[in-house]
Design goal:
Largest sheet: 8 strands, mixed
Number of strands: 16
Helix content: 40-55%
Structural class: alpha/beta
Strand content: 15-25%
């Protein structure tokens, strides 16, 4: 493979301006992530610790291998959505336990007692999908008051999918483990109830469908928490508890031993080696991508800073040049890269479709680097078949079966989002940079289109356009789209698996690739009809 040569000049004023702006954006992201890690805040954390309990993130940290890693996912889910705290009241991600990659979830008991809100339901579903798609065992660290009852209408129906998914994992021989550290009430009781293995902490775990107050209201029975659903009762009488832990540390020890006992083997090929570092510093990514995404940059400069040895075998480099495709290694795994270098034309769409087919033929995972304003428009490209050719690429993305990882480094507009494997097309993992913007179209373009339509409508009616009203409408539309295309707006609604610092891209992709290879990596030769 050819080593990519850089043209980046750190002394260039434009590079310096880009670097300063992106450093500020990365710092703001770091602050947001720090806030999401605070849980319920100092007061509720202190109260939790005073009860002799570990905080959820401490439990995760002790569960992980000393030399393992934890890739947190959807850390900012729920940010700015109603009154939901950033993180949606739960911690989730992929980490290494006893040498095995697992999906780990933990109730954030310091946030409303770990009760489950509507965003937490979506986050739980997303984590369950990651476990199923990538054939990863799941381990849940539970201390939850069940559903957030005042918002039950947003939770009840979709929440049932979580229990269904647990039973289907068991059917598919994907192990599920529950470590119960405190209350697990009502719907929350079904999580250990439907898990393959359960560990209850003595004198702390309380699992029941209805607590003592509701039991008294429903039946008149007066009963204490331990008799109704305590750990020892479930270990000695009901049989719900498979293991009775003396304390939280003992529960974590048992959890690690259970994962070790699985003797879990990956079914995909391993890396061909540790993978050598890129030739260029990842910090330079901050100076390469402009904060104003209307300014072009060469995506090869990004590729050179994330792939092994900055080596890249470019496919069809002289054809369809607004799409860069080619082969590389990333952390020792062979990948096919599909990256935007401008708007998609017919030629670039055709090239993309062919390249995706080739990667499926050879069982090679795909990495999509999105910076796309969409497909080219206009009479010439329409007559040349832009829809027909764009459909080929979308067909290929839709039916591809090798693992796909998507990183949105810039724009993600219109059907370009679809062709470059956006959320709707099922990438195994999808991450964004702080520079990311997502919408049907940009705010300026949408405001302009609506203004044209208003003027045409007024002309048909033979009336004058109210220029002041039109200008106000354009301004409001522009502001609305700018807000809704923000990466924070998107990540809060789980349109991605998290915003990442650009400098961490290689590490994040390496972890995601390793997780993907827990499942078989198998391409397809079956496609829908390609219109020629």
């Amino acid at each position: 493979m050819r080593t990519l040569r850089t043209r980046v000049d750190p002394s260039d004023p434009t590079y310096a301006a880009n670097h300063a702006a992106n450093t500020e954006a990365a710092s703001a992201l770091s602050d947001e992530l720090a806030t999401s890690r605070e849980g319920g805040g100092e007061r509720y954390n202190a109260r939790h610790l005073k009860r002799g309990k570990l905080l959820p993130r401490e439990r995760i940290e002790m569960l992980l291998d000393d030399d393992g890693w934890f890739l947190e996912l959807s850390a900012l889910a729920g940010k700015g959505v109603d009154l939901i705290k950033s993180g949606a009241g739960m911690v989730g991600g992929v980490g290494v336990i006893s040498g095995t990659e697992c999906v780990i979830t933990a109730s954030e008991a310091t946030v409303q007692g770990g009760s489950i809100n509507e965003i937490a339901v979506k986050k739980t579903k997303r984590l369950a999908d990651i476990a199923s798609e990538n054939r990863l065992p799941s381990i849940s660290l539970i201390e939850s008051g069940g559903a957030d009852l005042p918002n039950q209408s947003k939770i009840f129906v979709p929440g049932g999918e979580g229990f269904r998914d647990l039973t289907r994992k068991s059917r598919d021989r994907l192990p599920t483990i529950s470590l119960v550290f405190g209350s697990s009430t009502a719907g929350g009781a079904y999580i250990p109830g439907m898990s393959d293995y359960t560990v209850f902490v003595k004198e702390a775990a309380q699992v029941y469908l209805a607590g003592p107050p509701l039991v008294k209201m429903a039946t008149g029975e007066v009963v204490d928490h331990e008799t109704l659903g305590g750990a020892e009762m479930h270990a000695r009488q009901s049989g719900l508890a498979d293991f009775l832990a003396e304390d939280e540390l003992d529960a974590i020890r048992i959890g690690r031993e259970l994962v070790e006992n699985l003797q879990w083997d990956k079914e995909g090929p391993g890396p061909r080696g540790p993978g050598d570092d890129p030739l260029y510093d990842a910090d330079e990514l901050l100076g390469i991508v402009p904060p104003d995404l209307r300014t072009a940059f060469d995506v090869r400069e990004v590729i050179a800073r994330i792939v092994d040895g900055s080596r890249f075998l470019e496919f069809k480099p002289l054809y369809g040049t607004t799409l860069v495709t080619g082969f590389a290694d990333l952390a020792g795994y062979r990948v096919g890269i599909v990256a935007n270098n401008g708007v998609l034309f017919s030629e670039s769409a055709n090239k993309g479709a062919q390249f995706i087919q080739l990667c499926n033929q050879r069982n090679i995972p795909l990495v999509f680097l999105q910076n796309i304003t969409g497909f080219m428009v206009g009479s010439q490209v329409e007559q040349a078949g832009i829809i027909r050719n764009g459909a080929k690429m979308i067909n290929a993305v839709s039916n591809s079966t090798v693992p796909a990882l998507t990183v949105m480094i810039g724009n993600s507009y219109g059907a370009g989002n679809y062709a470059m494997c956006g959320r709707a097309y099922g990438p195994r993992f999808l991450f964004t940079w702080p520079t990311h913007r997502i919408a049907v179209m940009g705010g300026e373009q949408l405001a302009g289109v609506l203004a044209i339509l208003k003027r045409q409508g007024a002309a048909r009616k033979g009336v004058e356009v109210d220029e002041a009203q039109l200008a106000f409408m354009q301004k409001m539309i522009h502001q609305q789209i700018d807000k809704e295309s923000s990466p924070y707006f998107a990540t809060a609604r789980l349109w991605d698996d998290g915003i990442i610092d650009p400098r961490d891209t290689r590490t994040v992709l390496a972890i995601a690739l390793s997780a993907c290879h827990s499942a078989p990596v198998q391409g397809t030769s079956t496609w829908g009809v390609f219109r020629h």
